[in-house]
Specification:
This protein is α/β, with parallel strands linked by helices and 262 residues long. The chain has 13 helices and seven strands. The protein binds adenosine-5'-diphosphate and magnesium ion. Magnesium ion binds next to helix 1.
Length: 262
């Protein structure tokens, strides 16, 4: 899950889609990989004791930091550890990647909440996954930033999907999506199929303040219903053609390895 701009609703979408997928009997793992603002745990009402930083420092095994959330989803809390990932030695990185591939084994969906913008960090996660959902709002600033991200990711051959959040009316979301899709098609020759439109809904903010996930506690709210539709679409979709989870970790290892070695 990626966005050009911050605050567009990426984390709320990761959290609620994960829960909606889990309720469809899918095994879901979430990695909170937002460099600046790892806050998936907060939206789930969880208080992790440890996060990736203990793993990076060798104080904990990855399996020990994974926590179970509502509906049986599992979360790898990033915390400040996400920043430290970039500073690992090759050997540390290999070890972590082996551990990550072990804990994600057998999961049907592995969702990664990344930072906003086009950093190497985001590009490498998305390129390794081979697939990314671009989240944007209909606002021109968000659309411009989303276009920049589409440009960066499409160059890496990442399969992209579009999710428009906070649409004021159905037409508003559809129009924004069509504009962005047309621009990507015209200037980048890239198709960005629409995964869904989530309406502006005050209940989202309420659920955040209560730290009670929207799809579980406000299932009949308009935003929850839209996210359930997206989950239906994802749950019914064939698996990504990019070679499965094992391939993901190999690619991530290569991509991480390609930056300045220490
Ligand atoms: N569909 C929506 N309707 C209304 N408010 C929303 C919606 N989606 C997100 N928000 C608001 O935007 C804030 C930021 O969302 P968040 O998921 O943290 O964004 P990001 O992870 O992209 O920075 C939330 O706290 C919530 O109040
Ligand atoms: Mg976020």
């Amino acid at each position: 899950m990626a966005s050009g701009k911050g605050g567009v609703g990426k984390t709320n979408i990761v959290v609620n889609l994960s829960l909606a997928l889990a309720r469809r009997r899918k095994r879901v793992m979430v990695l909170d990989a937002d460099l600046g603002l790892a806050n998936v745990d907060i939206l789930l009402g969880l208080v992790p004791r440890w996060d990736l930083s203990q793993v990076v420092r060798g104080e904990k095994e990855l399996g020990e930091i994974v926590i179970e959330g509502p509906a049986g989803i599992r979360l790898i809390p990033g915390g400040s550890g996400v920043q430290e990932l970039a500073e690992m030695t090759n050997q540390q990185r290999e070890g972590l990647i082996r551990a990550l591939s072990r804990v994600t084994e057998g999961t049907d969906f592995f969702l990664i909440d990344t930072s906003a913008g086009i950093s190497r960090h985001v590009l490498s996660f998305a390129a390794a996954a081979g697939e990314a959902v671009i989240v944007t709002t209909p606002e021109p600033t968000a659309l411009t930033d989303a276009y920049g991200l589409i440009k960066g990711l499409s160059r890496l051959g990442v399969r992209l999907h579009l999710l428009v959040n906070r649409a004021l009316a159905p037409g508003d979301g559809r129009e924004a999506a069509a504009r962005l899709q047309a621009t990507a098609r015209r200037f980048l020759a890239v198709e960005v199929p629409l995964l869904g439109i989530v309406p502006e809904d005050r209940t989202v903010g309420l659920a955040v303040r209560e730290q009670r996930p929207l799809v579980l506690h406000y299932p009949s709210s308009p935003a929850a219903r839209a996210l359930e539709e997206v989950a239906d679409r994802l749950a019914g979709a064939p698996p990504s053609p990019t070679g499965g989870r094992g391939g993901f970790w190999q690619r991530l290892s290569l991509l991480w390895g390609n930056r300045g070695k220490r």
